[in-house]
Amino acid sequence: MSRQQNRLVGDRTRGRSGLGSQGGRPGCPRAIEADLVSEGLANVALDYAGRAWPVVPLHSWTGSGCTCGRADCSSPAKHPRTAHGLKDATTELAEVVAWWKRWPEANIGLLTGVMFDVLDIDGEEGMAAVNSAVPWNGGAWDGGPTGNDTIDGPTVITGRGHHVYVAATGQGNKAGLLPHVDWRGKGGYVVAPPSIHASGRCYEWFPGWGLDQEIAPAPAWLLELLTKPATFAPSQGTCQPQRDGSAYGRAALEQEVGRVLLSREGERNHALNRASFAVGQLIAGREIDDAYGAVEALRRAGEAVGLGHEEVVATIGSGVESGSLQPRRSQRRVS
Questions:
Q1: Is the pTM of this model over 0.85?
Q2: Domain ranges in the chain?
């Protein structure tokens, strides 16, 4: 059996037999539901904060939409509820109690880049990309979440894939680290168990690879990927891509960056979000090859118009992630 076939595909749905069960939070398996009834999301958030993992409350899923109330929400059940977003993340227990007293159904966000970073693997395509990049000694599969002990550690089953926790590297976020693989580092965050994904599924720790597993340092091959320089550079206030991807993708990226740079005060975050969504579509549609460079171009544009670094990173991350779910290609290439 191949390494890819050896993945615990069945275990990714282990414990979900209670989906749709009566009572409690929709989408949670019975075992997790029991924990939520006895402990509550507040206690889970408190447990994270007690580990010195900065916590922030996120909007949640109502069953028909995001609690933010926006029909066009680009990051349903994933974006912060608080006024200052990630800047409000804390390990202060009293603040955590106050948040979940106010929003008892809030999803839980954990700040990355402090105690840990996260390798965000999207589905089987992302796992295949990791398999291609990770050195393998040919040994027997050890039963870990990824099948390679260089990165196996605490792992969360998400709505679409996996979050693998790695010791903090000091590196920032990097969308498109590999095809269908992103990096959540300094200035980023992840949704933590037992939050509810917009699909109705419960975020849960991979069986046998939960909170008690050691968070290991990033291996050399991963650090090499993280420190790979961007292939986009600023030029006269804009960011021009090198000759990769399609001409359509390059032109579209330049247009989206331009829209951010020309946006008016009070509309800049919205412009950045729309541009990030469009770029996410183009990355998923393979019109833009250098995803990291494209994200860097957006980041520079967002900061150039006066948006804060953390706000820019969070907005780009949610926009690109949402856009990647709706790949877009030029009509000529499609035909």
A1: no
A2: 10-226, 232-329
